[in-house]
Amino acid sequence: MVCGGFACSKNCLCALNLLYTLVSLLLIGIAAWGIGFGLISSLRVVGVVIAVGIFLFLIALVGLIGAVKHHQVLLFFYMIILLLVFIVQFSVSCACLALNQDQQGQLLEVGWNNTASARNDIQRNLNCCGFRSFNPNDTCPASCIKSSHSCLPCAPIIGKYAGEVLRFVGGIGLFFSFTEILGVWLTYRYRNQKDPRANPSAFL
Question: Which domain, by its residues, includes 11?
Answer without folding.
Answer: 2-133+152-192
